[in-house]
TrEMBL record:
Gene3D superfamilies: 3.30.1490.270, 3.40.50.11290
Record lineage: Bacteria, Pseudomonadati, Pseudomonadota, Alphaproteobacteria, Sphingomonadales
SUPFAM superfamilies attached to this UniProt entry: Glutathione synthetase ATP-binding domain-like
Protein name: Circularly permuted type 2 ATP-grasp protein
Species for this entry: Qipengyuania atrilutea
Residue span, Circularly permuted ATP-grasp type domain: 74-451
Pfam families: CP_ATPgrasp_2 (PF14403)
Amino acid sequence: MNESSENFDEMQAGDGTVRKAYEDYNTWYQAQDARFLKRKHKDAEHSFRRTGITFNVYGEDEAEERLIPFDMVPRIIDANEWRKVSRGIEQRVSALNAFMHDLYHRQEIVRAGRLPESILRNNDAWLPHMVGFTPPGGVYTHIVGIDLVRTGPDEFFVLEDNARTPSGVSYMLENRETMMQMFPELFMQVGIEEVSNYPRRLAKSLAACAPKMTEGRPTVAVLTPGIYNSAYFEHAFLADQMGAELVEGTDLRVVDGRVAMRTTHGYKPVDVIYRRVDDEYLDPLTFNPDSVLGVPGIMDVYRSGGITIANAPGTGVADDKAIYSFMPEIVEFYTGEKPLLPNVQTFRCSEEEDRKYVLDNLEELVVKEVHGSGGYGMLIGPAATRAEIEEFRKKLEAKPDGYIAQPTLSLSTCPIFTKKGLAPRHVDLRPFVLVSPDNIEITPGGLTRVALKKGSLVVNSSQGGGTKDTWVLKD
């Protein structure tokens, strides 16, 4: 590669040798003509434009839709590394589901003094409507995205938990499809775990969570806010791939105590709704009365056991970054084991000692809003100007319990394709997890997001990041 990096590079060791996981790929890459690779790079972009793989950007004067940038150099993880990561993810997701059940029942973790009661009282995502209710099959977090970062050969950290409505799986699938179309010979030479069966496994996992009253094959529907939602492409894509119905709130109504969807033959009962609508808009009779995105009365049907909602309402508690800071305690409390995947060190600005440290070291830390997402509402101290730091200081002092802070990690890099050849860029990883009453399935790999700007640590597509195919090698 033609740019140096002090970070752990996943393809190339410090002495210039290629790491084992990348050996077969590197042999292939070195044998390719530069003009061929540049042409393929353009082909990939045209393919994504034809497919319509875009996302909407809110609050900007530019065009509403942007292309998700795709990089054609895969991120490669060997089988042994993946086994270790998978065990850690399974442990964490199991703990998250047990945590959700406990929060809405006896709150043993609070009684035991392992989690402060105030962290729930001040959490907007905690829903009193779920208290005492257990979803069908006892599953709260049906689809989970665990964001990971890497700092060394065996050093993976959990950066974030996405237990509400994790997005990005369609890009994972399209990235693989694009790579297989462009470089079929590569997939003949390198043994790579499959991801294309994800929609089938998702449909099977959701069906396994259907209510007890379901007769015959469960009817599954994907509930979308509509075409103007930033992830609409994904909603339509997954419904199509699963063979499920894509519906909006106006397509559904409560009929005879069941949620039913409008068809050409009248209204047909639905058993499982994979909702991509936030809690607040799910039921105007229970939550926001002005919502036109949800279904009036759906929460009554849900609590009576007449439908499964995936993910369960109230799971957004686990997305909260203040809760995240307690995840080591949560994992140990519910599994009896130390976490296999550690958190990034986190300072709670709500606590006086931590807050003082953060205010004294803003220029060295990453500060995030507790309820923030998408790379917004955060300060990356080392990359911020003095004016930006001082402005953020005022926000933090005004509402300290709204922020957490973390050290700036030396994130690993993977190569991207540039006009001058391969160049390292920072990456993260979002593996997708499917949870059913008797099983936790982890997709081998997941979505790798990459900061396309040299030196940038922000991988979010809304902030200029891109994606790449993630390969988990077979044994």
